[in-house]
Specification:
Blueprint: E1 8-18, H1 21-48, H2 53-68, H3 72-88, E2 99-102, E3 107-110, E4 115-120, E5 123-130, H4 133-139, E6 147-151, E7 157-166, E8 176-181, E9 187-189, E10 194-195, H5 198-206, H6 208-213, H7 219-228, H8 231-254, E11 258-262, H9 269-272, H10 278-285, H11 287-303, E12 307-310, E13 334-335, E14 338-340, E15 347-349, H12 350-366, E16 374-377, E17 380-383, H13 392-402
Helix pairs in contact: 1-2, 1-3, 2-3, 8-11
Bound molecules: zinc ion.
């Protein structure tokens, strides 16, 4: 469970560069020089086992500058890139001439002209940006001090400009929207909204072979998988996740509610006390859900919407009205799309039922001073020990006024 608040949220704004033909080789030469520098620096760092920026700088700055012909600040950025990369990933691959880190001294955004100035090996060059209103709005009034220049496989050039977006303060709110991820639909909320997975199923099937090959479970494997997936599927998923997260955050903002998700990062067999099902594995390993949560988190941060994570145990099996789990081990009141409680007779869409449970857990996380909403009793998750209504908001309000 985590509750995070920031005064600003750093995001990167992706802008396409208009590059005249004669400048393409200048950019490419700089990209190549930067990759060469990174590879040389990495070799030294590995040989000397030196991962301190200042110490490494003393060792490599001069020889690397002479060998590559890069500008001073390019070399400094290459050192940072190598150390940052080594800390982030276990296995550093060879650096390829596809990206260049820029800082205050090698990059400038000129808002009036919709232009960026970029220092290349041959000196400072100006490039026009091809951007739309979305990027314009994010860049308005900003004086960004960091950016990354990228070259795509197709040979297009992009610049990712880092900007700090001020965030609205997040306030505690008794309302919680629960979001259930990736069972039948991509996402289902406790308010009854859902985003269907059907439209992307076809695209997914084509790549199921790639997925079947991926065995390990950690986030690193998600990143590896992401690289293996084709650009098209990745772009489509990203577009979808942007839309879903935008809608979720807007709804939470306008309804003055907190968003609650299951914490799927640490699902262990012991939590469910049975072997992890195919669905559970898919839900915890899937980078698409990971990306959706990331998008929600940063958009929520900007909008001042609180995002919380709740334990995922039993959310799909508990009745959201009477909070009973099927008494027979291995059996569930849930069957496919529908949930029918054998205890109180409550019938509902299974995913919405799960989302309602997530929302209720969220209420208890968000308002720990309210007693008795969620407790773990003899391995069974019990929400609202006394019988509540179907409507959690109402149940919550009733309880509040009773306290
Ligand atoms: Zn029930």
């Amino acid at each position: 469970m985590s509750i995070q608040r920031y005064a600003v949220q750093t995001i990167s704004v992706k802008c396409k560069l208009q590059v005249p033909v004669e400048l393409r080789q200048e950019i490419d030469a700089t990209l190549q020089g930067f990759a060469d520098a990174c590879n040389q620096i990495y070799e030294v760092a590995k040989r000397e086992n030196c991962w301190n920026t200042t110490k490494l700088h003393h060792q490599v700055y001069k020889p690397v500058r002479e060998a590559t012909g890069l500008k001073a600040n390019h070399v400094c950025q290459a050192i940072r890139r190598v150390i940052g990369n080594a800390k982030a990933v276990k296995q550093v691959h060879k650096f390829r001439p596809t990206s260049l880190n820029l800082d205050l001294r090698t990059f400038q955004y000129i808002e009036d002209l919709q232009t960026v100035g970029i220092t290349l090996m041959c000196g400072r060059k100006k490039f026009k940006l091809s951007i739309g209103n979305y990027q314009l709005a994010l860049l308005r009034g900003q004086s960004p001090t960091a950016a990354t220049l990228n070259k795509t496989k197709r040979g297009d050039y992009y610049i990712n400009i880092c900007v700090d977006i001020p965030t609205d303060p997040t306030g505690k709110t008794p309302k919680v929207i629960g979001v259930d991820l990736g069972r039948r639909d991509i996402a289902t909320t406790s308010t009854g909204q859902s985003w269907s997975g059907e439209q992307i199923q076809n695209t997914r099937d084509r790549y199921s072979k790639v997925r079947a090959n991926v065995q390990s479970k950690r986030t690193r494997s998600s990143r590896r998988l992401m690289r293996r997936l084709s650009g098209r599927e990745r772009r489509f998923q990203k577009w979808l996740n942007h839309n879903i997260s935008k809608q979720l955050v807007q709804d939470a903002k306008s309804g003055n509610a907190t968003l609650a998700f299951e914490d799927l990062t640490n699902i262990r067999e012991s939590l469910n006390q049975k072997p992890r099902s195919k669905t559970e594995r898919r839900r915890s390993n899937n980078w698409a859900f990971y990306q959706l949560r990331l998008f929600v988190e940063y958009k929520a941060n900007i909008a001042g919407v609180l995002v919380i994570f709740v334990p995922p145990a039993y959310t799909s099996q508990t009745c959201s009205r009477c909070h009973q789990v099927h008494p027979v081990k291995g059996k569930s009141y849930r069957s496919g799309k529908s949930f029918k409680c054998g205890h109180c007779g409550f019938e509902h869409d299974a995913d919405i039922n799960a989302a309602l449970n997530i929302a209720a857990l969220g209420v208890s996380v968000n308002n720990p001073e309210v007693p008795g909403i969620a407790c773990l009793l003899s391995g069974q998750l019990s929400l609202f020990p006394t019988t509540g209504g179907e409507n959690w908001d109402k149940a919550y309000t009733d309880r509040r006024s009773a306290v």
